[in-house]
Design a protein that fits this description.
With about 500 residues, the protein is α+β, with helices and mostly antiparallel strands. Helices cover about 35% and strands about 20% of the residues.
Length: about 500
C-alpha cells in the first residue's frame, strides 16, 4: 500500500510538467491508482467482517470510578496581613503522567483521505496539472446517488451526502452475524465518499480524536433514526475505524454499544480491558458485569483516542463569537474575552477527567490571543517575581469563588475558557488557568500540587526566592497559590505546608 501512495505522490508532484498528449496515459494511471486504493480499503473491511462474525468473547466489565471528592473550603482562604513567607521544603510524590500519545501513535489516518482529495501543500502544482491535462485530480472517487443530510454539530451547520440505500437497511438482530452482515454491506457501498466528507469537515474545523469521534456520532445520529439504534452504533464504529480511531462494537444485555479506547483515565464510565488497554463505554445499567466483543484491531493504523489533542480550534461562525467584558482589578483595565459559544457547548460535554487534562489541553486561538494581548504588555517589563505576583493578583481578585459542589452539585474541573463562562470557580479551576498564564504569558515552567482537599501550583524561577519549594526533575519549584488570597509567590497555606502532595506534571 505504501508503494501505491508513493507512486501517487510522485505523479502529482510532476504532473504540472506533463504535456497534453499524455492525457490518456494520465487517465489510465489515475484509474489504476484509484482502483487499487478502493480495492485495498474494501478488502480490509471484508476481512474484518469475518472477524466480527467469528471472534467475539466475553469480557469483564469494570465499574466507573467516581471523580475524587475534594472537601474544599466554603470560602476562599486569605493570607493574614502580617503573614510572612516561610522558607521550607514541601513533600511531594509524582503522580502517573497523563501524556499525550501524539508523535508516537499519531492519529494520522484522516490525512490519507485528505491526500486522496489532493488537499496538499502544492496546490499550485495540482491546479496547473488540472489545466494542462484537463483532469479532475480531486474527484477520484465517483459521487454515488445520495441523500443529503443537514447536520448541526454543536450548533455548527454541516451537510453530508450518504448513499441513498443506507437508511433502508435493517439489521436482522444484534448477533455477531448480524453485525458482520451490516459491515459487509457498508464495505460494498460507496463508503469512501462518506469518509471523505467527514475528513474534509474535520480538517476544516480542526477535529481530531474525541472531537472527531463526536462528529462521527453526530453523522450517525442524522443518518439513522432512533428506532435504528443497532445500525447507528455499528455505523459509528465503521466510520471511526476508517478514520483511524480505535473503537469497537460490543454487545451487552442484548444491546449493541460502541467501545472507545482512550489513552487517558476517564471517570464514571464503564470499561473493559483488552491487551492492557481500557475501552470505555456509556451504558444505562451501572451494575453490568460483562459484555461480548473481539480482540482484533480493525487495522494496524487505528490508534487510541487522545483527549489531550481533542479540542477543535473554532466551531462558531464570527456572528456566534460572544465577547465577555471583564473588569480586571489586577490589571486596572477592561478585558474583552471572546468565547466560541459552540466550543463552550462541546467542552461542557467532555468526559470527566483528572484536572491535569484541562491544564494541558489546547485552548481556542482567539481566546489565547486575547489573553496575551491584554496581559503581556502589563508584565513584559517586570521581573519574574513581580510578574508572577501580578498574575496571582488577577486570580485572587478578578473571579468569584465557589466550590464545584455549591455551583454544580458535582466535581467539575474547568478548561481554561470555562473560567470565563461561569460566575464562580474554585482552587483547581484557578490552578488550571493560572498554570496556562504562567506557561504562555511568562514562558515559565509550572506544575500542579494535588493536596487532600486543595490543588495549587508551583513555579520554577530562574533565581532562588524565599518560600516553600520542592525540587522536581532538576528544577526548584516555589508554591504560588492562585486561591490563597493576598499571598505572595513562595507563600504556602499553613494548613497544607506540612502535608504530602501529588505532583502533576503539565
Amino acid at each position: 500500500m505504501k508503494k501505491i501512495f508513493l507512486l501517487f505522490f510522485l505523479f502529482i508532484s510532476v504532473a504540472g510538467s506533463a504535456q497534453s498528449g499524455h492525457q490518456q496515459a494520465f487517465d489510465d494511471f489515475l484509474k489504476q491508482i484509484q482502483g487499487e486504493f478502493t480495492t485495498y480499503e474494501k478488502q480490509i473491511n471484508y476481512e474484518f467482517a469475518e472477524t466480527l462474525r467469528n471472534q467475539w468473547e466475553e469480557f469483564q466489565v469494570f465499574q466507573g470510578e467516581e471523580v475524587p471528592a475534594r472537601p474544599k473550603p466554603k470560602s476562599m482562604p486569605a493570607a493574614a496581613s502580617d503573614a510572612g513567607i516561610v522558607s521550607c521544603v514541601i513533600q511531594g510524590t509524582p503522580a502517573p503522567v497523563e501524556n499525550s500519545i501524539f508523535g508516537t501513535i499519531a492519529n494520522h489516518v484522516i490525512h490519507k483521505w485528505l491526500t486522496w482529495q489532493s488537499k496538499r501543500s502544492n496546490k499550485e502544482d495540482i491546479n496547473k496539472a488540472r489545466q494542462t491535462l484537463g483532469a479532475a485530480i480531486g474527484n477520484t472517487i465517483e459521487t454515488p446517488k445520495v441523500l443529503k443530510r443537514l447536520i448541526s454539530f454543536y450548533n455548527t451547520p454541516a451537510a453530508i451526502d450518504v448513499p441513498h440505500t443506507y437508511t433502508s437497511y435493517r439489521m436482522a438482530g444484534n448477533t455477531e452475524g448480524d453485525v458482520a452482515d451490516f459491515w459487509t454491506y457498508l464495505a460494498e457501498s460507496d463508503f469512501e465518499y462518506v469518509v471523505k466528507q467527514v475528513a474534509e469537515f474535520a480538517d476544516e474545523k480542526g477535529l481530531e480524536n474525541w472531537s472527531l469521534l463526536k462528529y462521527v456520532e453526530t453523522v450517525s445520529d442524522n443518518v439513522y433514526t432512533d428506532s435504528q439504534e443497532n445500525e447507528k452504533e455499528v455505523f459509528t464504529v465503521f466510520l471511526a475505524n476508517q478514520l483511524g480511531l480505535d473503537v469497537k462494537i460490543g454487545r451487552a444485555n442484548e444491546k449493541l454499544v460502541a467501545l472507545f479506547s482512550i489513552a487517558q483515565k476517564v471517570y464514571e464510565w464503564l470499561s473493559i480491558k483488552i491487551e492492557g488497554k481500557k475501552y470505555y463505554f456509556r451504558f444505562d445499567d451501572e451494575k453490568l458485569t460483562s459484555l461480548y466483543t473481539y480482540r482484533t484491531l480493525f487495522s494496524e493504523e487505528v490508534c487510541q483516542i487522545d483527549l489531550l489533542r481533542s479540542m477543535p480550534d473554532l466551531l462558531s461562525p464570527p456572528a456566534r463569537i460572544q465577547t465577555r467584558t471583564v473588569r480586571s482589578l489586577a490589571f486596572d483595565c477592561e478585558m474583552e474575552i471572546p468565547l466560541d459559544t459552540n466550543l463552550c457547548h462541546f467542552i461542557s460535554e467532555f468526559p470527566r477527567v483528572r484536572c491535569d487534562i484541562p491544564a494541558m489541553s489546547e485552548v481556542n486561538s482567539l481566546f489565547a490571543r486575547s489573553l496575551y494581548d491584554t496581559m503581556y504588555p502589563k508584565v513584559k517589563d517586570l521581573g519574574q517575581f513581580d510578574a508572577v505576583h501580578l498574575l496571582m493578583k488577577f486570580m485572587h481578585n478578578d473571579f468569584g469563588y465557589a466550590t464545584d459542589q455549591d455551583q454544580f452539585g458535582y466535581e467539575k474541573p474547568f478548561f481554561c475558557e470555562e473560567n470565563f463562562m461561569y460566575p464562580f470557580n474554585d482552587c483547581e479551576d484557578r490552578s488550571i488557568l493560572f498554570s496556562y498564564l504562567i506557561k504562555h504569558i511568562l514562558g515559565m515552567d509550572v506544575i500542579l500540587l494535588d493536596y487532600p482537599g486543595h490543588i495549587t501550583t508551583a513555579v520554577a524561577f530562574d533565581e532562588d526566592i524565599d518560600g516553600a519549594y520542592l525540587d522536581f526533575e532538576g528544577k526548584r519549584y516555589y508554591v504560588c497559590d492562585p486561591t490563597y488570597l493576598d499571598s505572595l509567590p513562595g507563600m504556602a497555606h499553613p494548613d497544607y505546608i506540612e502535608l504530602d502532595c501529588k505532583i502533576l506534571k503539565i
